[in-house]
Design a protein that fits this description.
By secondary structure, the protein is α+β, with helices and mostly antiparallel strands. The protein has 3 domains: 83 residues, conserved putative lor/sdh protein from methanococcus maripaludis s2 fold; 89 residues, Efflux pump adaptor protein, beta barrel domain (Elongation Factor Tu (Ef-tu), domain 3); 116 residues, Helix hairpin bin (Helix Hairpins). It is built from 7 helices and 21 strands. A 6-stranded antiparallel beta sheet has the order 2-15-19-18-17-16, with no helix packed on it. A hairpin with an 8-residue loop joins strand 11 and strand 12. Helix 3 packs antiparallel against helix 7 and helix 4 runs antiparallel to helix 5. It is rod-shaped and about 180 Å long. The C terminus is likely disordered.
Length: 409
């Protein structure tokens, strides 16, 4: 019995293999002709429907998101750290040596130009001036006497004698001037208006000629010096406004203007020194403060697209535009990038529809449909997508063919 079952199983396996390889034998076709015809018709219907489906998928539009190309300026910011100094700052030096008999040097005090700061002992200079004035008076009398005698016909007063007397008078006059300058040097005055710094000069000190007495800073405006990189050189001719902030006044921003910059780059740092003037009418800013300086440059309007609109290939970067429902690539050069925006240089007019989402799945010449566009897209020859005859679907064509195959002949 076991051998019989094994034999039956083997025969069944062989018959199945035969049918799979060579099809149904002719005898079975004669006995079951209708069923086979129906099966072939069904297979034909499935094949036609599958082919129609392939045709429909081959002509389906790719759904993308588009947006009009906009033009906007690119705002670039340069940051630097600088140090401030007074618009005018001087160190007051002693023009002469001598003992200090008066000192008016209030630390951090406001003074005006011409105010007396220090007075030195001037007794010697006063006496020298008196002597010079007496000599001048004597020389002037001599010239007047010689002139009268010569006018009265006195032959002893020659022209040479009178000329020598005139020269002596002029020398005496010059000597008086020198003594007046020497006396004036004993009084040291403020050369500019501003604020006094610290000074250790006191009454009784003996100063040497050229000794520093005090510093004066005119802080009605400050000059902030800072360094900018080489790439900022072109910007300096277009921007003259800076924004400055200092840790001394958190949250406050001070406006300034670029007033000067160096004529060459530093050979080591490859940077250029720039000076900006910041007005300081209230005197709240002090020389020596540290400032963080910002320079903002706004370019001319340029084409800007979302970063998702940029695609890459071996040829470089590009964007895709909607050319009457057809995807068309346009080469671009990326100029700037910030957050989700990219500024580009491309031969694309403002307002052109640019694919912003879905660009990675596009191919040149592919039909595209934007999100929310339910209208059927037509190919360039005027036929609707789907590949079938107008007004009929591929499935309907397949059903019609099946009915014709089943109709009696």
């Amino acid at each position: 019995m076991r051998m019989f079952l094994t034999l039956i199983t083997a025969v069944g396996i062989l018959m199945g293999a035969y049918v799979l390889t060579f099809g149904i034998p002719a005898l079975a076709t004669a006995l079951f002709g209708v069923e086979v015809e129906n099966s072939d018709a069904a297979d034909a219907l499935r094949g036609d429907a599958l082919g129609a489906g392939r045709g429909r998928r081959g002509s389906t539009s790719t759904t993308v998101v588009t947006a009009p190309l906009t033009m906007m300026p690119y705002e670039s910011t340069l940051n630097a750290v600088g140090s401030a100094e007074a618009l005018r700052s001087v160190s007051v030096l002693s023009d002469a040596a001598g003992e200090v008999i008066e000192a008016h040097l209030p630390s951090n005090g406001e003074i005006e130009a011409g105010d007396v700061l220090v007075t030195l002992d001037a007794r010697t200079e006063t006496l020298n001036l008196e002597i010079a004035q007496a000599e001048l008076e004597q020389a002037r009398d001599t010239v007047n006497r010689y002139a009268r005698l010569q006018a009265n016909g006195n032959s002893t007063i020659t022209a040479v004698t009178l000329s020598d007397a005139v020269v002596a008078q002029r020398l005496a006059q010059a000597n008086v001037g020198l003594m007046e300058v020497a006396l004036d040097d004993r009084t040291i005055r403020a050369p500019i208006s501003g604020r006094l710094g610290l000074s250790d000069v006191e009454v009784g000190d003996v100063l040497a000629a050229g000794a520093e007495i005090v510093t004066i800073d005119d802080a009605d405006a400050l000059l902030v010096s800072f360094e900018l990189p080489e790439r900022a050189i072109g910007m300096l001719s277009e921007v003259d406004t800076v924004l400055a902030s200092t840790p001394s006044f958190t949250g406050r921003v001070f406006d300034g203007n670029i007033v000067a910059f160096d004529s060459r780059l530093d050979s080591v740092t490859r940077s250029v020194t720039v000076e900006a003037r910041i007005e300081n009418p209230g005197g709240v800013l002090w020389p020596g403060m540290t400032f963080e300086v910002r320079i903002i440059h706004e370019s001319a309007p340029m084409a800007a697209v979302p970063s998702t609109a940029i695609t890459w290939s071996r040829e470089g970067s590009k964007v895709w535009i909607d050319a009457d429902g057809i995807a068309e690539p346009v080469p671009v050069t990326i100029l700037f990038r910030r957050d989700e925006l990219v500024w580009i240089d491309a031969d694309v007019a403002e307002g052109t529809l640019v694919v912003t989402e879905g660009a990675q799945k596009l191919r040149e010449g592919a039909r595209i449909a934007t999100v929310g566009d339910d209208a059927p897209k037509r190919s360039r020859d005027g036929e609707e997508d789907g590949g079938g005859a107008p007004g009929r679907s591929p499935a309907a064509d397949a059903n019609s063919e099946t009915e014709q195959s089943q109709a009696p002949t």
